[in-house]
């Protein structure tokens, strides 16, 4: 199916029609699979990435400008999803390594604030899991997914001020927990 034939289905899909999604999927599936297969570092991930591509297509369809060619726009989604997958795999490997070493965490004598590590990528997943769901969402989206506070507000459909408040409260709770844990271990939390 060429792009002209696909255009009415794209319009119907942007309006939420399920049949249109199936038609667009069938028309683009082989192309998507080939492109993901060639871009993916681990070929076993191809099917999962293809699923992510179509989930992102559904999410982004309302942003598609019907006056522009569809395939270049769609290829951009494919490339971004392959990159996101690679980044997610890399982060999960890094997270596993840091969670293993978190048990052996010793405060650096050069670190004035024991929580400064989160800004440098220090993974604090075990501590984050103790936060309430609302606070955890903000921390995970901000530090594990690299979303801006503005993007988090949009994603969670809440005011930016609420995101900032939750972010500040979550950081305070995490700092308090780190400080408390270090005191229990008899470690200094400040440079002397």
TrEMBL record:
Keywords: DNA-binding, Sigma factor, Transcription, Transcription regulation. It comes from the Bacteria. SUPFAM superfamilies: Sigma2 domain of RNA polymerase sigma factors, Sigma3 and sigma4 domains of RNA polymerase sigma factors. Residues 26-91, 129-176 form the RNA polymerase sigma-70 region domain. The keyword Aminoacyl-tRNA synthetase does not apply. One of its GO terms (biological process) is DNA-templated transcription initiation. GO terms for molecular function: DNA binding; sigma factor activity. NCBIfam families: sigma70-ECF (TIGR02937). Belongs to the sigma-70 factor family. ECF subfamily. This is RNA polymerase. It comes from Paenibacillus selenitireducens.
